[in-house]
Every structure is written in structure tokens, then in C-alpha cells.
Amino acid sequence: MLALFLSALAMTVIVGVRYLLTSGAFAWATSRKFPQRLVGQRAQVRREIGWSLASAAIYGVPAGVVAWAWQQRGWTRIYMGARDYPLWWLPLSVLAFLLAHDTWFYWTHRWMHRPTPFRIAHAVHHASKPPTAWAAMSFHPWEALTGAVVIPLLVFVIPIHVAALGVVLAVMTVMGVTNHMGWEMFPLMLVHGKAGQWLITASHHELHHQRYRCNYGLYFRFWDRLCGTDSGLGEFAAAGAVRGGSRCIGRGNGAALNAERQPDGQRGGAARP
Ligand SMILES: [Zn+2]
Ligand SMILES: [Zn+2]
User: Fold this and answer.
1) Residue 106 Cα to ligand 1 middle (Å)
2) Is the pTM of this model over 0.90?
């Protein structure tokens, strides 16, 4: 029992430190690249860090249980030998985890935009206007719980090499931070190219934070496209969010940010679902 407790504690610290380092690094990059970007957002950033550190504990406990089950009991399907499964399974397992996580996220996220769960939980995430790199884990504990169980459950079902799992966690961490930082770090060629039609980067998620009722996905645009909730790429509203001398503008509907025209009831106030 002590081993389980220590494992949960260690993972909580690791998740918290990982958040502080990653969000801190991208927030620093933001302030260097766009000095105006974080001006006047001190109070919001403090709130984002507070909620995110609380989320770290909620993410850390199931992660700690997995680490314990893996190391002490051998219950998970995490493997160490590179040849325990065919080599082609390495990239495929990463894709399988990302697709499963994306699917879970899309549907729980859509559900959380229903009035009651929005008011109780998801409003916390949308209180960031516009979000910053610190908002990566800025969730109400109920929402953090829905996100924290996915990967820990998947490792009991889908075999994955420990290094491939590291890749999944790295993608999850970096995309969670960069999708909120208010500027696009990926080349515009990628974002506006064929890959960008299917992959989610900051330009896509920014529009979700502006319009609420669209662009619910996490990594891929598949579910948004299939369900008719994809509104294309957004425009970064914050002053100074320019890149390479030109505005970071998607070719989607980002310019049409007139909240008055949005049909949903979730605009204009985080606690107004
Ligand atoms: Zn978000
Ligand atoms: Zn949302």
C-alpha cells in the first residue's frame, strides 16, 4: 500500500513539474516572440496555474496506479523489449493511443458543452480569454478526472512499448500547451496544407475558445469533420500575435468572430452556458 501511495505521489510531482517546465518554456517563448501577448493577463495566468496544479494531482494519481501496476504487479500491457511485438507496431501503437484519446476527448468535450456540465466544470477552462500556454491543464477537477483516466486505462488494453508511451505523453503535453499559447508554431505550409486539414494545432483550437460550439477535437479533425462541427482555422485575436511579419490568420472562418452572431449561449461569459 505504501508503494502505491509513493507511486501516486511521485507521479503527481512529475506531472506538476512537467507542466511547469513545458508551459513555462512556451510562455517564455511567447513573451520573447510577442512581448504584448501576455500583458494584462497576470490574474488569468495565476488562475490557470492554480487549476493546472490541482489537475496535476488528479492526473498523477491514476498515472501512479499504472506505474505501480506495471512495475510491482506486471498488470499492464506496457512492454520493454523492442522485439516483443513487430517493429511496425511501434508507430501504430502511438497512433492507436492518439486516436483513442482524441475520440474520448471529442465526445466528452462535446458533452461538457451542454449547459449543466459546462456550468459545473468546463466553464473553468473557458474562463481563459484568450488562453495562454499556462492553460494547458486549467480544468475543473471533474473535467481533469475525465481526461486523467484515458491513457491509464488504455495501457491495460493496448500493448505499447515504454518509449512509444513516452512519445504519446510528449505529444499530449506539447500539444496541450501549444494549442493554447495564442500563436502558431508550426509552419503555415503544414497548417494550411494537406496535413493541416486533418491535424489540430493552435489555429484550430483558438477558434474553439472564441466560438465555443465548434472545433472540439484534440489531435485530429476527423470527428469534427464527420460530425459537422469543424469551423476551420481561427485568427489569433491578441495584439502582437504576428509571425514572420504577417498576421497569423487561418483561411477558415477566423475573421468572423463577431460573438453577437454566434448561435450558442456560451459566448461572452465563462459561467453562462
Ligand atoms: Zn482549450
Ligand atoms: Zn470547450
Assistant:
1) 12
2) no
